[in-house]
Amino acid sequence: MGTPYVTYGLIAANVLAFLYGTYVLGTGVWRVEWSLIPNPTVFADFALGGGDEWYRWITSGFLHFGLPHLAMNMFVLWQFGSQLEPILGRARFIGLYLASLLGGSASVMLLANSGIHGGASGAIFGLIAAFAVVLIKLRLDYRSLVTTAGLWLVLGFVIPGISWQGHLGGAVAGALAMLAMLRWVDRRPAQR
């Protein structure tokens, strides 16, 4: 597929969202309007079809709490997106990213009980988990990747302010999405 345009587009969208939120909306307003704020009542309303803020499941993935948060997430997005997108193709890569983003959001709403949650890291953990699945499937050494990702996941449990729920949900959704894609490829009839 060549140039990872979707990856570059996602990076640009995150940077533009950061600039818009910081300099147009104002940081406080941006965080309140775009974030996921877990609350069992709100989740029950949403699950029953009464929630009117469904967009937060997506906008929270474009909300970053400062320049270092944005820079780190965009570096890792570039690192894994530029490897996965050419392999998967643009459409499947978008599907993987979206599944990971929504998986991270769902996990926050199910497992967190307070706080303001945001950032692209749930979707990015999905990309990392998907990449690990590919390495395992190809019987390549995956230990370094799993160790690094595991370390980042564990840090989310011990460092305040990091949404381990979003990381965990994104990773699970990304791994499952990649397994489904690989299973579909394995079941396709061979082309002649």
Summarize the entry for a quick read.
This protein is an all-alpha fold and 192 residues long.
Topology:
Layout: H1 5-34, H2 40-47, H3 56-59, H4 67-88, H5 90-111, H6 121-137, H7 143-158, H8 164-187
Describe the structure.
With about 190 residues, the protein is an all-alpha fold. The protein is about 75% helix and about 0% strand. The protein has helices at about 5-35, 40-45, 55-60, 65-90, 90-110, 120-135, 145-160, 165-185. Helix 4 (about 65-90) runs parallel beside helix 6 (about 120-135) and helix 5 (about 90-110) packs antiparallel against helix 8 (about 165-185). The protein is globular. The two termini are about 20 Å apart.
* SSE succession: HHHHHHHH
C-alpha termini separation: 22 Å
Percent strand equals: under 5%
The averaged pLDDT comes out at 85
List keywords for this structure.
192 residues; mainly alpha
